[in-house]
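PROTOCOL LOG
Step 1. Enter all chains and additional molecules of the complex.
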Amino acid sequence: MIAALALLAGLVGGLILHPIAPGWLEPYLPIAVVAALDAVFGAVRARLEGVFDDKVFVVSFVSNVLVAALIVYLGDNLGVGGQLSTAVVVVLGIRIFSNAAAIRRRLFRA
Amino acid sequence: MAGSGEAEDRAGPTSTRSIDRVRSLLSVPTPLPMSLPMSLPTSTSTQHVHHQPLLDSIVADALDPAYTDAASRRGSRPPRARTASIALLLVGGLAVGLTVGQQRQEVPAAQQTRTALLGDARQRTAAVDALSAQVSELRRENTQLQSNVLSTTQQGRAVAQQRDDLVVATGQTAVGGPGLAVTVDDAPDANGGRGSAEQRPDGSVVTGRVTDLQLQGVVNALWAAGAEAVSIGGIRLSPTTAIRTAGETVLADYRPLTAPYVVLAVGDAATMERQFRLMGSDVLTALGQQGSPVRVTQRTDLRLPAAAAADTRAATPLGSTGSPSTTGGVSAPQTKTATPPTRTSGAHP
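Step 2. Run joint prediction.
Step 3. Record the structure below.
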């Protein structure tokens, strides 16, 4: 419950307070957000299936965000930024979809 | 998404071993189908761990197997890193909200600036137009008042006549009639870059750009050819109007001009053209050599605006030389010769 409240608080804070992200961070913010969303969806699904573990969540969140940002940064420097970020977004999108589907099944059947 | 659910439910409990997971990820990737969601092909029960298609493995690992591993290992151990997960969820929500808020802010700000600038520009232009109209109106009033005052005395009438003779040459009134239109343009490749410049034997560098000296030459040639009124770029030239260069721009009467430069001259078109080509032969040759195109056309419908109002710098009072009705009085000789136009020159720095 507290975790969910924290998520909500973060969302509302970001929308209302308009914090300014540092300039060097801005290109990586969208992909980091998608990666964070993937970790969050995975965590929610794990919670619903009763296997949630805080340590796993923390590690998966941080590593997802860092790897996604790293891939985009690498791609920009190699000149294949667009293609690499497309690949990252596709994979993360598939995972988000399947986690969301599982969550939906859990919520409306069980 | 029903098909995908079944596949991952079957794959979930068995793919707990990390080696199997890695092997499944490293299997030969199959091309992704174009549509999402899709129904996945069912794989054989014992082999799917080793040769899972890429899509299957992505979907199978959507719920991180580490969760089930940790759950099976945990038993009664208390969950660790609770505060860290809460903090991270806070950060995650913040990041999402930040990105959304930022996207919504960026576009309107640029739009707002643009709209504000446009509004400002329109406002100032309207103000300038209103002031220009006011200026013309006041000049007309002044001229009328002058005529009224001057017509009361004989000396005044002589002065008025002199003024009328001079008013065209000094550019104090708008002029219309036939004449010549001379259009001078920069050479087509003249961007002012050093690369396109041509080095003269005396060391001077010539680009295809038209200079103020060349424009002065054209204007002087037109005066010499008998023009009664000359304007350049819509700016009427008075005897004290300067054509000069500031930086890369040519200014006439301190107002900037852009290529192509259109010089209009009112007068007898045919004789003017003949005389102009004669008098201006060296400047026309120079322009031709540097590649600047010059076009001379005869026109019958020229309208030249008045020049900016001249400042009054000196004044002498009119003496009272008797009433106009003095008998035997000789009216002042009326000279109708037009005063020779003064040459237009550049201001020397």
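Step 4. Note key features.
The first strand of chain B starts at residue 175 and ends at 184.
Chain B has a mean pLDDT of 75.
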